Prior knowledge:
By secondary structure, the chain is an alpha/beta fold. It contains 24 helices and 8 strands.
Amino acid sequence: MSMKYYKSYLILLFVLSAVFRLYRLSSIPEGFHADEAVYGYNAYSILKTGEDEYGKKFPLIFQSFGDYKGAIYSYLTMPFIAVFGLNEFAVRLPTALAGLFIVALSIYLIHILTRDDALSLLAGTMISFSPSSLILSRVQSDPLVGVCFIFIGWYCIDKFIQVKKWSWIAGSIIFWVASCFTNPAPRVLLLGFIPLLFIYYLRLLKKWDKVIFFLTYITITSVILCLLYGASGTRYGQTSVFSSQEVILPMEEQIREDGISKLPAIFARAFHNKSLDYGRFVIHNYSLYFGFDFLFFQSHEPVREKIPNTGFLYLIDLPFLLIGLYQIVRSSKRWGYFIVGWLLFTPLSLSIYNQETPNIHRYYFSILPLSLLSAYGIDVVITKVKKAWKTVAGIGIVILYSVSVAYFLHQLFIHQPLHEPYFRGYAYKELVYELEHIQKNYDRIVITKAHQSPYIYFLFYMKYDPLIYQRMGSPRDLDYSGFDKFIFVPDNCPGLIQQGSTTNQFVGNRTLYVNYGGCEMKKNSKLLKTIYWRNHHAAFQLVENVLITPSIMAK
């Protein structure tokens, strides 16, 4: 491929990639998840006060919803909030830009592996327009940013091997450590990926290069262990297979059944023990990442990123993926074995998670090897067909992928807003704006926690002064408490007066209640407004209680 055509294709690819990621970024996918609001508000808080929502100065890890999150994404968001304000666009923009950067990095890194201009461009194109890349580039996705940092670290390692400058090793350590402070997934992925890189580059490494590689790995491993066993490891402890009741409870039940059957204890322990049962669970999780449903038909986790009838890859990728894999094994390509090793170890690293598995956020690290295999399969097909049919085959493949992309965009823009909108907090934006306009009419506003944690939406959409919030003690939405006029309760229908309910302490003529959308109205209830999800199901009811008397409360 001539340099002129190469550059022209690159420019066109990046222009289209940018359009696909930035067009209606703030509204598609529709809704704004609580985690997105958390990263945004903490960035806003640090920008304004130098402290996160809990008053911790310039944290690398911040507390959120009972666990801890890496703060790097919030720092990346701060300049965009400074320019565009606290809104969905500013929060999602770092991910969109990281998605573009991953495309550029992937083309470079694949060229390092294959030394093939056309193949690297084709694989980069497939990465850019894959369904997982497009959806994750359009939401706040700290795992995607973590993958971007891992790829930059690899780029630095390759540069070090070429020019032998210490600054490149320092760069790889900085970006790999940064990835660990971005999301928990890189903390397990790097433990396998760095040794894999070492094996691939082994023949190019001199004695001291190997020592440097080893010291780099020790450094990264030390950081990872500190994170896994420190406060920031809370999320890992919650999601690890080793804390899963799905393993422990069935194992204990089978031991009990063996006891009822009067089987000797030695046999019960031989067949039902942690090593065996945890091993089965890990193998099961490992296999899920190679499942047809997850890869090509419907990825389910996390639910907030679920697009109807859409898998991690397009269905059309399947034949080319198999052809590419077969050809690599047959031809014994060195880079091919590296890619296959990458694909094999990634789900092994992720199989220790017991929640939301298989997960497109965590598995996004595999987008490069999967896309390269598919691109290689296409290259093999084009190479094998007769010269007279090459153009026809190329056009046919382009049409098939174009139809696949068009179908995905239809699902994203038309069906996603209407399909199960409850997981993305769509209705909270309208709720907050409505309450912001009428709150002056009430002494208190009592809000249900029937959906996800609501307090962060009030902080985010009201651009609530973080300094005032911190001085209140960062009250969040603990049961029957809150901040300002807002009180959050676990009752679905706080507007209904029920005997013995703790919510009764907030009864008053200047109290507004925000009910779950399905609450039945009583005689003393005055429905002011109903807020709906995009599928027209009721999300919230704004209710006043009138004529409050002891006789009514007794009913």
